[in-house]
Amino acid sequence: MENAFGQPQSVVVLGGSSDIARAITKKLAAARAHTVVLAGRNQELLNAAASDAQEYGATKTDTVLFDAEDASNAARTVTEAFEKVGDQVDLVIIAVGLLEDQLSIENDAQATARMAMVNFTWPVAALAEIRRRLVAQGSGRILVISSVASIRIRRSAYIYGGAKAGLDRLCDGLADSLEGTGVTLHLLRPGQVRSRMTEGQHDVPFTTGVNEVAENVMRGLAGGDRVIWSPPILRYVFAILRHLPAPLWRKIMDR
Amino acid sequence: MTRATLYGWGRTTPSIAEVLAPASEVEVAAELARSRGVIARGLGRSYGDAAQLSGGVVLSNLDLGGISAIGPEGVVTVGAGISIDELLAFAIPQGWFVPVTPGTRQVTLGGAIAADVHGKNHHLDGSFGNHVLEMRIVTPSGAFTISPQKDAELFWATIGGMGLTGVVTSVTLRMLRIETDQVIVDTERFPDLEGVMNEMSRRDAEYRYSVAWVDCMTRGAHMGRAILTRGRHAAANDVDAPTLKAPAKPRLFVPFNAPSGLLNSLSVKVFNELWFRSAPKHQENEPQSLSSFFHPLDGVRDWNRLYGRRGFVQYQLSVPDSAGETVTSAIRRLSSSGVPSFLAVLKRFGPANPGMLSFPMPGWTLALDLPVGPDALPQVLDDLDELVLSAGGRIYFAKDARLSPDKVRAMYPDLDKFLEVKNRVDPEQRLMSDLARRLDLVGRQRR
């Protein structure tokens, strides 16, 4: 069971080897999470993430392999992860994502479809099964990692941003649909984060490390915040950016 | 049957359950036979997740009513869903008072047993369980009448057992004779913690009731300044016109959730300052009504909404007499962390009863209300747990919403004895709560 500070005891992480997910998992394990099940596509990375969690205090960890390029396995993956927890699941984190260099794929139908699949379709399919299970449980939380890239979409990353925007908007409605079920959904909207996914990209203003994101998540879970911005100031920055005239927006973003 | 969102009084961890209100022992038994996970609930005054069970069945005890006539020795049999408020409305006009009352009248007798509640007279009279002569309990293996003489094991597993041994349906207890509805109160202000603790150690035994309100936000020389109020029931000749009137209904209420952050370190500091200054430096023999002495917060309905959407936690510790300095360290840690805490309540506990999971132990108890919000709070409380544990103390389940399960066994050394009794009457672990799951109380996922 989760405690009064939104600290879960059992956690499922889909996309559990991503750098942001690993940073969050460590903090959760250091707080109250004793059971952590990590799902991802690379067993070696998952094992490393699992031993991280153990080092920070988890006593029971397990892993599930899956490929987010095939949505037909989403329900099965969620089921397997829940079964490996073997008890109520307090928090499910969806950290599945794929960021490819847009210039090299934007004219490739298959590659763009793959981006949409990993960043949107697979998570949506997984959410259906997660929703069903948590609502039956009568309690639990879902944390979906979105991105500020979904709030105002840049031309240099419109495929990633667009897929994330779909997920972000869908989750907003899903969160409303969960009112009164005992289940809550939190959207994490980080700005640029230094991680493997963004390797080689130069820092933009408000770039953070993964630990700062994890701290903001802990605070957001404690406060029950529907949307968790990281860093928090981006809430106000994007309140302005999203309304900029397109030419100005392009100019700023192309700098 | 309805699905409902249930909270504790601190409004922190909601969960959904099917809620039923059985009106008889037979209906309770039927529900225990049908359902896999069940917990009883009274008026929801436990602060955390003790009276809820996500995805399970919650049995409201509020339809288990009835109050017998009060015998010449004060013996009365009461339905477990009757509240102390209802019992007092019946008993005070006849010259009887409950032997133990917590800080609110809005608890059911079933809840009073589950949490083995204590009041301002613990140092002399013990907790609620000390005054229970017998009770009826429905367990998955049958309904029993239990008492300290008859199946004492199940009786003392149930006193303080957080509802995990069965559903109590009725309670027989001995009431206390009173001549008036007034309390004669002595009030004293102390500029620091040491002063008030010395005075309480020295002279609490002279008063039936004693409690100190401690300011946990002032640092430095006045850390832990306190107001000590102690009293006794007024005899007929103590007051001009003795009356025996039932407590009034609350006239004030909080209509909606205040914004989170209304109670911040500044506003709480101001409140604590006003509270401290409004108390007399020294006053003796002041008559007060029973309700203003025992249940001051009952005058404001739904006061927990003042803490806003995020809610609050109450932290209540007890430590042995020899560990009085732990109280000082705990208050120092809080006052230096800047976490806002409303006036804390400090009390002396007398001897413990044999309740296996009962909270009180001879020594000191300190209770604090803390709004959820400050980033430092979870860690500060985890640190306090360590402090309490190393002093041989414990945390009160009825207030808890955040303790770590690894600390429970050391705090409650009779847990294994409790589990043996529970396994005897509930081998399939049907009785369960969110609290029991969180604190790993029922041994289901013992690590």
What would a concise description of this structure say?
The complex is a heterodimer of chains A (255) and B (447). Chain A is an alpha/beta fold. Chain A has helices at residues 19-31, 43-55, 74-85, 102-105, 109-137, 158-177, 210-223, 234-241, 246-254, and strands at residues 10-14, 35-40, 60-65, 91-94, 140-145, 183-190, 227-230.
Q: Could you explain the architecture of this structure?
A:
The complex is a heterodimer of chains A (255) and B (447). With 255 residues, chain A is of the alpha/beta class. Chain A has one domain (10-254): NAD(P)-binding Rossmann-like Domain (Rossmann fold). Chain A has helices at residues 19-31, 43-55, 74-85, 102-105, 109-137, 158-177, 210-223, 234-241, 246-254; strands spanning 10-14, 35-40, 60-65, 91-94, 140-145, 183-190, 227-230. A seven-stranded parallel beta sheet of chain A has the order 3-2-1-4-5-6-7, sandwiched between helices. In chain A, helix 1 links the parallel strand 1 and strand 2. Chain A is globular and about 50 Å long. The mean pLDDT of chain A is 95. With 447 residues, chain B is of the alpha+beta class. In chain B, a hairpin with an 8-residue loop joins strand 1 and strand 2. Chain B is globular. The two termini of chain B are 35 Å apart.
Compile the SSE list and pairings.
The complex is a heterodimer of chains A (255) and B (447).
Chain A lengths: L9 E5 L4 H13 L3 E6 L2 H13 L4 E6 L8 H12 L5 E4 L7 H4 L3 H29 L2 E6 L12 H20 L5 E8 L19 H14 L3 E4 L3 H8 L4 H9 L1
Parallel strand pairs in A: 1-2, 1-4, 2-3, 4-5, 5-6, 6-7
Helix pairs in contact in A: 1-2, 1-7, 3-5, 5-6
Chain B lengths: L1 E5 L8 E6 L4 H10 L3 E4 L15 E4 L14 E5 L4 H8 L4 E2 L11 H6 L7 H4 L6 E8 L2 E5 L5 H7 L8 E8 L1 E2 L4 E9 L2 H11 L5 E6 L11 E8 L18 E2 L11 H14 L3 E8 H5 L5 E2 L10 E9 L3 H14 L6 E6 L13 E9 L5 H14 L3 E2 L12 H4 L3 H11 L8 H5 L9
Parallel strand pairs in B: 2-4, 3-4, 14-16
Antiparallel strand pairs in B: 1-2, 5-9, 6-10, 7-8, 7-9, 11-13, 11-15, 12-13, 12-18, 17-19, 17-20, 18-19
